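Troubleshooting log. The previous structure file for this entry was overwritten by mistake, so regenerating from the original sequence record. Sequence copied from the archived sheet and checked twice against the printout by T.R.
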Amino acid sequence: MERLLPIFPLGLVAFPGMTLPLHVFEERYRTLVRDLLAVEDPEERVFGVVAIREGYEVGSFEARSMYRTGCLMHLRVAEAYPDGRYDISCVGRGRVRVLETDSDRPYLRAHVALLTTPEETEESLHAETQATLAVFTEYRAAVSELRGDEVMNGSLPADPELMSYALAATCSLPLVDRQHLLEATGTSDRLGLLRRQLRGELRAMRALPSLPATEVARSGWSPN
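Regenerated output below.
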């Protein structure tokens, strides 16, 4: 299924099921929010967040290139300031693939394809989930020891797919690693890739124990 969506390029990777707060101050993105709020059906107030590959979020040095796989976001809350800025909160609904961009509006739009997740057996998902949780537990303990405080100790979703996105958003990983996780075709693929990434982080922490741990991401998650 294809559709035309407003696109918000950002210097981060958004994931399905995760909440994302944004402060909107550039005029083109104020226009984007106003256009979304003008949509009569609140459930159709959706746009795409795509990570910037090269460039910046704002100003004259704006995004010159972006990744093709992004996240379909649903605008849930918009609080307007008197000067026209917005604080918004949105939640990821699914993955999208950018097919073609459109510049007819002040902000970027794109024709996108909605991506689906292939079905997998409960047995294989359970095995992948348990293996990933074991590595994550080791990783969380190592980061907590480096920071001198308990981190990433909240509860995780029970659903394997949603859990894979929650871990991808929570663990302190470079943007390119998070993007690879978003692009993974299936849940088992994503969990396997996440294990390899976390093992790499563990090796780095053990090799350089005197360095402070990377700031832990604080992306929230929502089951809606």
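The longest strand covers residues 86-102. Archived copy saved in two places this time.
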